[in-house]
Amino acid sequence: MTQQSNADDSTPAIAPTDTALGSIIHSNTQMDYVAQAFRDGEREDPPLRDEYEFGQPVYATETVRGTPHAMIGVVYDTRLVDPDQGRDGPRLSAPDQEMFVPGYVNEKQTMLGIALLGTAELEADPHQHPNGEEDGDPQSFTAVSQSMPRWTLDIDDFVYALSDDGFRQFHTNDGTLNLEYYERLIATADQFGPEVVLAIVDRLRRLTDADAVLDVVEKKVRWQSSESRGVLR
Predict the structure, then answer these.
(1) Neighbour-count burial for 40-78, b at 16+ CB within 10 Å, e otherwise
(2) Where do the structural domains in the chain lie, given as residue ranges?
């Protein structure tokens, strides 16, 4: 669905100052990934909880055949993992060590479910974020595609919060508002599909003046959801 948009997309889409949220640890499908959120001690400035909230746009960078790309996605689920849940008392430190020691290492993790929305080419080599390498310059999106990405993310790829400017540019790069991915997103996000699409609609209402097409998408999502499970009205 498209509609002409008067949004200014001249500002950079991504920048070295974008918040690093976590790193990819697993994939469920080519469209569905799991990232482990960074914790205190893993980053100088670990993300705050509201920086990876439900519906937060994200991206990772990949270079394909020499061309840098941004892989655009959205957080559609958050899960808390505690490997020690159900275990009481100290743990044996090693099979051949007859001494019990307390497990002081904090193994609790926050896992983010990320659904890919599409891709965009970057104007120059992808900047390097503050992960021990040199920073670069802000960049804008070109050749935006909301079709299913033909390649995958890699294990340990960093995932960053996508700015409002980047999110708007991803949706209005050709001068029209486009949500080509929305039915695919509903299928990928499963039980949270309708809700994450509506979260995106709410965000785009703040960033664009394309209320007409957003109204159509919202009505269609609510109708489909009420027909299938009677949750949203």
Answers:
(1) eeebeebbeeeebeebbbbbbbbeeeeebbbbbbbbbbe
(2) 2-82+108-228
Other CB atoms within a 10 A radius of the CB of residue 120 amount to: 24
| Residues 6 or more apart in contact with residue 87 via CB below 8 angstroms | none
Q: pTM of the predicted model, to two decimals? A: 0.82
pLDDT in tens, 138-197: 999 999 999 999 999 999 999 999 999 999 999 998 889 999 999 999 999 999 999 999
pLDDT of amino acid 7? 47
147: which 2 tokens?
């079709």
Q: Which one, of 66, 182, 201, 198, lies nearest residue 122 by Cα?
A: 66
Q: Are 14 and 121 in contact (CB under 8 A)?
A: no
